[in-house]
Amino acid sequence: NLKMSTSPLDSRSSKYIAKANLFRKVNTIQVYVEDIEDNAFWRFFLQPYEKIHNVQFKISTLRDKQKTLVGKCSLLSKFDDEKLGKNLWLCIDSDYDDLIKGYTVFSERITKNKYIITTWWYSIENLKCHPELLTNNLLKVTLSDIPEDDICKVMNDLGQKLKIPFILLLVMREQHDDRYTMSNFQQLLSSIRFKEGVIDDAILSDLLSKWNLQNSAYITQYSSKIQEWEVKLSHLGFSSEDYFQLYNGHHLLDYVAISLLKDKADRFRNQQKSIISNGADAADRKQTLLNEYDNKTCRGLSVHQRIEQLINDNNQFPECSATIRIRLQIEEALR
Question: Which of 182, 134, 127, 168 is nearest to 154 (CA)?
């Protein structure tokens, strides 16, 4: 007999769900995610496997005593390895748990338990900032012809130019050396500016000169470790041009993706508005056409707000190392 649970969390185990599945036509796999906003992201990856494997994924956030428990630490604290299994999975951001041994107290579990699925790139936000998706977002907010590889080149350029500051972050996190932390790298990233659709090299050059002076002792101390990490990342499939995929996702979104698209959008929108203005034969007609353009592209929002909305709504992801890795993890968990 299926014994009823006395506590909501008692029933949240793979073994319990497996017993409940005996009374169902289709096996249910309970999947817990960090936040309700993550549901659509994980649904994109999980749904294609439902018909193939005759399963139904139930994607939820974790609630306990009428309270939603948000974040990977909440999930990993509530579910030990004994509760996880074929019928109960966790889908979470990778952060640096996949990269750095002992990054958190959960790192070993995350890398060894096949029922803990991660984003491989730092977080969901990194995939939402994929250059191909950002190009589509820019198209929607400008209605202009956008060079397909333009944004990709800028993102690759960023990864290359911030190579040493980023690798030093990984090295010092690995060494638990708090003299250079995520907030230090965030400060550098937040100071970058874009001009005419590319990185403002004059500002970045000045930033990096100051950064090198401030951190020269750490670079010298960890020079061999920096080289080792560059090789390690290469073996994992990350060239220096790809390092933006591993930046803190919220920082990448706030300081790079939105700022870059805003800079590009302003230029393309001005061009489009000039074309509209020059093509209209009367002042009232011109204003009507300009208003229509604003409504189509921004829908009552500012350009900045519309760009942020479009990026956050990205939920169809092109093939990349993260999507490949996520699918491999799902297939392994279904075996």
Answer: 134
